From TrEMBL:
Pfam families associated with the record: Xan_ur_permease
One Gene Ontology term of the molecular function aspect: xanthine transmembrane transporter activity
Listed name of the protein: Uracil-xanthine permease
Keyword Methyltransferase included in the entry's annotation: no
Organism encoding this protein: Acetohalobium arabaticum (strain ATCC 49924 / DSM 5501 / Z-7288)
Lineage start: Bacteria, Bacillati, Bacillota, Clostridia, Halanaerobiales
Amino acid sequence: MEKESLRAEKLALPQKVILGIQHMFAMFGATVLVPKLTGLNPSVALFTSAVGTIIFHFITKGKVPAYLGSSFAFIAPIIAAKESFGIPGAMLGCLTAGLIYIIMSAVIKAVGSDFLEKFLPPVVVGPVIMTIGLGLAPTAKDMATAHLPTAIFTLAVAIVISIFGKGLIKVIPILIGVVSGYIFAYLAGIVDLAPVQEAAWLALPNFSLPSISEFSASLPAVLIIAPIAVVTMVEHLGDVLALSKTVDREFIEEPGLHRTLLGDGIATAFAALLGGPPNTTYGENIGVLAITKVHNPVVIEIAAVFVFGMSFVQKLGALIRTIPAAVMGGIVILLFGMIASIGLRTLIENEVDLSNNRNLVIVSTVLVIGISNLAFTIPGLGTDLKGMGLAAIVGIGLNILLPESAEAESDTEANEVQAEEAVQKA
């Protein structure tokens, strides 16, 4: 029954295709931004993102509607490793990070994921999910302020379609918003079509293999990049929890956290073998799921097929890359806000009592650490643990260290003191 509700939604193929294109637009900007910042090839990133998503869906038995795009967490270490050891050395580090995911997947499969219920109750999960969206708010601001009128127009169109649209129109507000925003931006004179004219029609992505034959020389690159896997595994867990709340399915239990980690790990290792950045489940696409209420994984798979083709069709890829940052800025304001709202819903639906000081301390601390992007440098590695990763670890630690009975004991003591005072006065 669960499988039917996820996969057999009553959508005709043309509708699924349109929804898939919408997901493609949602992931595109961030996926090509990572290779631009790290000096990797954008076409390779698109190729490995698409294939990685298909790998993830195969391993998770087609039950998790997640799209895997380029991970931002690896940007700084990839740049550092590439400067000293070149792209092959950096890719060896990324390959090792993927292998760490695979090993952790085997461990979780062996010991189970029941321990997560103790470490990750709603009082921790809710604010962690909120930091996914709110932590990305500065990114949305930077994109939107590139040309604020375009961003505002794009956001307004997406909101109007989402609220007042009917039928198929109602479930593609992102796609309509992007197209409308692009037209607005073109009329405003901020679209440069020169890259489309210069691009070839068809071309193979410029793949780059990691330097496995020179492992000893590239070992320091592994030490720079691989430890980030510890952080991104926490982020992976947060994204899976956000997906679970969005779709109202317990993906930690079925298909299981071990499968989602394995899918993410193999996708990342595959990307590294071809010179692409590590993959991660994308918050942008979680936002699309929250808005459209269409959770069919096939739609995500269709998006992956389009992205796969785009990695070879250079003109089409170049056309998508001409979408101004302000257009996507208007869209992600809505998408990132939706993710934060899912975290808030988690707290409300689980009736987390914020009049309880223990709960209030955990939620407050997680939110501020996650949103402020406070960083902690891991001794000996020079790697920063920050954002949602650090917030999740702090939240888990506080949940373990702060006794649940502390607030009740405090209230009891206060009541006893008040009773004694009343007796003395009497």
